[in-house]
Amino acid sequence: MAGKARHKQPIIDAAVRLFRQQGYAATGLAELVEASGSPKGSMYHYFPEGKPSIATAAVEEAGRRVVETLEELAAKCPTTGALLRAHAALLAGWMEKSGFRDGCPMTTVLLELAPDNVTVAEEGRKAFAARQEVLAAKLRADGFSAGEADRLAMLCTNALQGSLVLARIERSREPIEQTAEVLAQLLTIGSLSPGNAQSRDRGRESA
Amino acid sequence: MAGKARHKQPIIDAAVRLFRQQGYAATGLAELVEASGSPKGSMYHYFPEGKPSIATAAVEEAGRRVVETLEELAAKCPTTGALLRAHAALLAGWMEKSGFRDGCPMTTVLLELAPDNVTVAEEGRKAFAARQEVLAAKLRADGFSAGEADRLAMLCTNALQGSLVLARIERSREPIEQTAEVLAQLLTIGSLSPGNAQSRDRGRESA
């Protein structure tokens, strides 16, 4: 058992990478085995329930990594705006380096399997909730109420998720960084509504 | 030719529906033929370049429908905030009715095939640009500058896209409607930043 245990993580890592780049259905078990460098038998040993259980493990792993990354950034960034900008820069860098293939490690497989695969969907729900909570904690530290922090954390998470789709289509890091920038501005300098824009203009004129 | 032409649209419609619910790779040609009610030969007649060319046609069709829906709503809604709320209510209704299977008709196939399939990615880019332009026009009508309108339209589109993923995972319409609500509030009542929240509180106290 101990000798074989070393193959479990490489299988999960390969699944995260391949599901992220090409999706769940397009990735065959043989491809997973080969990409992980594991012997064929280890796949059936660790995942006796087959491919869907690999999807569950991959979403869990991807979610853990996203939260870890966000927590590391949150510890370094003074505000939620700074955190969003730093996260966007990191995501954009990964996307660019991978030829715009390394989008969100969870979204494609979740869209393919949820809601019908309840286990995968639940793993995704937990991952998104944990991810949003890192942002919500930072927003509360910025001074937002608990309710506002939750709503804004969901908005920020959804907007960055969407921007990763656009970045793939446009082969550009701009959608990610621009989305984070607009959010950071909305959170820090205040409203972009026309009334406030006029106030800002008046402020500049009278200055 | 005329006799066969009636089968092209049903194939595209079936592709939009199946790619949206289960993704591109999981949908076989035989399933597409059966779902469209078309004779097997019509598939090869209209799409001689095979399955990837059906993906291109499906993304084009889905993009056309999204823009048509948004334009109809934009004509009825007085502001961008009202438009976002109306669009979210419609999307949430479709999601609920389909058991949270009918998410975005483009995202799954785009994530599976972009950026490597350049044709599909380009069709997706055009669809998202057209969709954002409907919102940007409404934002300009609200009084935003062209630059602000473009940036906010991208934010709103990305955020709603992301909320559709969360709605599938959570089997809930709430992520869609809450995301639209937060965006509508940011666009209309002004900033949710702590400073402004305090101003709003002071305003209420002195009222």
Summarize the model shown.
With 207 residues, chain A is an all-alpha fold.
Query: Distance between the terminal alpha carbons of chain A, to the nearest Å?
Result: 73 Å
The largest sheet of chain A is: none
Low-confidence stretches of chain A: 191-207
- In CATH terms, what is the fold-level topology of chain A? Tetracycline Repressor, domain 2
As a whole number of angstroms, the C-alpha radius of gyration of chain A is 20 Å
- CATH class identity of chain A: Mainly Alpha
Q: CATH homologous superfamily of chain A?
A: Tetracycline Repressor, domain 2
* Strand segment tally of chain A: 0
Helical segment count of chain A: 11
Overall pLDDT metric of chain A: 89
Largest interface: A-B, 61 and 61 residues
